[in-house]
């Protein structure tokens, strides 16, 4: 009689085997394919990030040298929008 705890499952491919009898199971081909996919994803994500001039944005928002720019972007946009709305309601 076997129960579920006697079995192991590969987290990568779902292959199941009885504990101690994993034999020649290998996910190497799946992992190589996954690495290729992730490298392509990283390159496309990096290309998108490279289009954003964070230094120039930080300079426009008055972010101090060494402070992170990313967290300042949304508050900066909101401040600019609030200022624009204020000016338009005053007819400026
Ligand atoms: Zn596997």
Can you put this structure into words, describing what you see?
With 92 residues, the protein is mainly alpha-helical. Helix content is 55%, strand content 7%. The longest helix is centred in the middle third of the chain and has 23 residues, at 28-50. The mean pLDDT is 89. Residues 10, 12-13, 15, 25, 27 line the site of zinc ion.
Which labels suit this protein?
2 strands, 55% helix, mainly alpha, elongated, 3 helices
Overall pLDDT: 89
Report the total helices.
3
Q: What's the shape? A: elongated
Write the element-wise H/E pattern from the N-terminal end onward. Answer: EEHHH
The largest sheet is: 2 strands, antiparallel
What share of the residues lie within helices?
55-70%
Q: Please give the order of strands in the largest beta sheet.
A: 1-2
Q: Rounded to an integer, what's the Rg over CA atoms?
A: 26 Å
The helix/strand class is: mainly alpha
User: Unreliable stretches, pLDDT < 50, 5 or more residues?
Assistant: none
Q: Provide the β-strand percentage band.
A: 5-15%
In whole angstroms, the N-to-C terminal distance is 83 Å
Please give the number of β-strands: 2
* Cofactors, ions, other ligands: zinc ion
């Amino acid at each position: 009689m076997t129960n579920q705890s006697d079995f192991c499952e590969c987290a990568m491919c779902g292959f199941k085997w009885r504990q101690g009898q994993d034999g020649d199971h290998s996910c190497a081909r799946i992992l190589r394919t996954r690495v290729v996919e992730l490298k392509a994803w990283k390159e496309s994500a990096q290309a998108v990030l490279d289009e954003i001039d964070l230094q120039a944005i930080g300079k426009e928002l008055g972010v101090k040298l060494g402070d992170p720019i990313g967290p300042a972007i949304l508050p900066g946009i909101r401040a600019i929008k609030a200022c624009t709305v204020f000016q338009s309601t005053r007819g400026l």
